Amino acid sequence: MDKYVVFGNPIEQSKSPFIHTLFARQTGQVMTYQAQWVALDGFTAAADTFFAEGGRGCNITVPFKEQAFTYADQLTERARLAGAVNTLKLLDDGVVLGDNTDGEGLVQDLLQHGVSLADKRILLIGAGGAARGVILPLLAQQPAGLVIANRTAEKAEQLATTFASHGRIAALALDQLDGERFDIIINSTSASLSQQLPGIPATLIQPETVCYDMVYGTGMTTFNAWAKALGARVVMDGLGMLVGQAAESFMLWRGIRPGARQVQRELRRTLQC
Ligand code: NDP
């Protein structure tokens, strides 16, 4: 039976085994998918052992995405620019391919909820690993513009420079945002995890502004509750992105696209969010 795994530390909270088990059942694929805790200095050894024992592919979560980037023999363009890998696949010639499916997971979640990105003005708050991973797929949707804003402004400027040749992208400081207008605001900061707001002006939130928080969990996230209270009609959390990135990994491994909406519904029921 083909073996897949997710490596992380911690790993108990991972929803990936739940998601991939449902994908496999839904598409009739004969495979196993398990979560594996890895010591902080043990990623390379764990991956070597997994592939030596016949493993076909793995997901990588915090804090090993950069190590997986180094581990891969070959990289997709989106992984190269993201500087991080969340999916490894053993190719037939023994080469290990590294991909990053996070950004496509976000884009697919938005599209499946009827939110088109083409010709829209998008604000991306945050400039950490999650932001970096989604920029190329967002630009590929040909938005009217993508603005990055981050608490530490220099990090946003660096990202805008890195991706400048891939589309219309710019950086603004948080205190330069007042008076701007955006169709879609994506919060890629971890602020909601500590019940904090990322520091953008309330004037950006209009009834038609689509607000997306990459954080997910029980109940509405801090950012989404704030946006909703300011009148935003559409607020989305990151659960759909999580399922979306998993669907992209599954597609890369198995060559078959699973139905993400159905699995997202099941996961929401389980998590009560
Ligand atoms: P990083 O640690 O790399 O970056 C964190 C970012 O959040 C930085 O830009 C940081 O700003 C900003 N930040 C943190 N706290 C605050 C605050 N109180 N106010 C303003 N900005 C803040 O983390 P990642 O980029 O890897 O992950 C960010 C979030 O995205 C996490 O919560 C993670 O769970 C989520 N995520 C969700 C995914 C999904 O599938 N739904 C996938 C990947 C990530 P500064 O640079 O100034 O420190």
Automatic annotation (TrEMBL):
Q: What is its EC number?
A: 1.1.1.25
Give the record's GO CC terms.
Answer: cytosol
The Shikimate dehydrogenase substrate binding N-terminal domain extends over 6-88
Q: What residues bind shikimate, as annotated?
A: S14, K15, S16, T61, N86, D102, Y216, Q245
Keyword annotations for this protein, in alphabetical order, are: Amino-acid biosynthesis, Aromatic amino acid biosynthesis, NADP, Oxidoreductase
A GO BP entry is: aromatic amino acid family biosynthetic process
Q: What pathway annotation does it carry? A: Metabolic intermediate biosynthesis; chorismate biosynthesis; chorismate from D-erythrose 4-phosphate and phosphoenolpyruvate: step 4/7
| The protein's name in its UniProt record | Shikimate dehydrogenase (NADP(+))
User: What's the source species' lineage?
Assistant: Bacteria, Pseudomonadati, Pseudomonadota, Gammaproteobacteria, Vibrionales
